[in-house]
Amino acid sequence: MLKRVLHALVTLCIVIVIVFVLLRQMPIEGYFNNFDKLSDAQIKAGLQQLGLTQPLPKQVLNYFVQILHGDLGVSNKYREGYSIAKIIAQKAPISIEIGLISFVVSLVIGMPLGILMARSTRTRLKVWDKLGTVLIVIVQAVPSAVYHLLIQLYGSELLGVSMLFNMRSLETWILPIFSLSIGNIAYYAMWLRRYMVDEANKDYIRLARAKGVPAARISRNHVFRNAVVPLVQYIPNSILFTLMGSLYVESLYSIPGMGGLLVQVIKLQDNTMVQALVLIYAAVSVLGLLFGDILMALVDPRISFTGKEGAR
Description:
Blueprint: H1 2-24, H2 40-50, H3 56-68, H4 84-120, H5 127-141, H6 144-159, H7 174-200, H8 203-210, H9 215-232, H10 234-243, H11 247-252, H12 258-268, H13 271-299
Helix pairs in contact: 1-13, 4-5, 4-7, 4-10, 5-7, 6-7, 7-9, 10-13
């Protein structure tokens, strides 16, 4: 496990260095507000204050020290001179609240749908399997930007609610939460169905049926229990990214959260904030993969990270 943690830290450090170096190749206008009105002396003084006149390796080292002290820098354009950490502290709670609800909705709908689809394959009607397959095909085949827009347009008309998000109006939470949930609903349903169908066709399941073990007990204690193991690896990553907010959905509904924030600062070319936000999203991605491995080991004791013979 220690080896996995070290790998995650090394990966995160590499991502930080790459993003840092790439952003240093961007025009210096991204570090100044009203750049056209500044004199050469003011620009030079500003670059020195930001440490941009130092050699690149020195800048990278200083940035790592800055991160370790919890300092993400200050905004240069979005909110000039304002602490990025404070901006994120204001935005993050909104994304976390919506994200948690969206994750619960996707889990509550997606997992039972996957189970119903898997069981439906063993019947003649296969209604649930057909309905679930239609949903999965739509989500997989249609670009997310398209069906998110359709959900907003037709959903707001059907429910009679505003297209834009309002913290104080609970009805305006429905469409953003559904938009954030639908991708994960399809994902959980698709893969749980697949894993359960594969598991149900294995020899030990056939043997259990031949011995007269009740179908419900086989499905609960054997098929579902083993099928859900590979799926749980995705859950931590899904939670973390949902909590951080969707870049497109938050912009679409004008939600003042983390997702929309990244889009705004990219448009403004606020390089310092872009750098800090990409760092946060990279950390979330790496942590999601790490927590996924840990959760798999907790769910299935057969999985081990010790490197012993036969371990996975």
